[in-house]
């Protein structure tokens, strides 16, 4: 059981990492397209900011504040990665509620 849990966590980590890299690539390609459309030839490399959050354990009030702060500081040039422990016990209903919450806050 422990091995299965570790394998699943490793797969989840890889999925989050790949998604993050794809999002970063989209942000960079968008800034390059804008540079070309504005007539600039040089490439502008802008740093990408990441906010990594985890171990929320159903503390949604503080999590919401942290998300708002991350959005405020990074704007649309950043990426928030939530890496786990969204609930304390992990029941299916809690998971679906938290998924809807995350989809709603973007």
Which labels suit this protein?
106 residues, mainly alpha, 2 domains, two-stranded parallel sheet, 3 helices, 9% strand
SSE layout and pairing:
Blueprint: H1 2-37, E1 49-53, H2 60-74, E2 78-82, H3 92-105
Parallel strand pairs: 1-2
Q: What count of structural domains? A: 2
Mean pLDDT across the residues is: 76
| Helical residues, percent | 55-70%
> Roughly how many Å apart are the termini?
33 Å
Major beta sheet summary: 2 strands, parallel
Number of helices: 3
Return the string of H and E elements.
HEHEH
Q: Hey, roughly how much beta strand do the residues contain?
A: 5-15%
**What's the number of extended β-strand segments?**
2
Poorly predicted tracts of residues: none
User: How would you sum up the global shape?
Assistant: globular
Strand neighbour order, sheet with most strands: 1-2
Using only C-alpha atoms, the radius of gyration works out to: 17 Å
Structural class: mainly alpha
């Amino acid at each position: 059981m422990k091995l299965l849990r570790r394998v699943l966590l490793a797969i989840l980590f890889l999925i989050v990492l790949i998604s993050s890299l794809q999002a970063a690539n989209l942000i960079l390609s968008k800034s390059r397209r804008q540079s070309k459309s504005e007539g600039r030839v040089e490439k502008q490399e802008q740093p990408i900011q990441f906010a990594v959050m985890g171990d929320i354990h159903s503390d949604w009030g503080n999590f919401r504040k942290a998300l708002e702060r991350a959005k405020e500081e990074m704007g649309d040039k950043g990426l928030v990665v939530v890496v786990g422990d969204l609930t304390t016990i992990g029941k299916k209903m809690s998971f679906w509620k938290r998924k809807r919450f995350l989809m709603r806050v973007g």
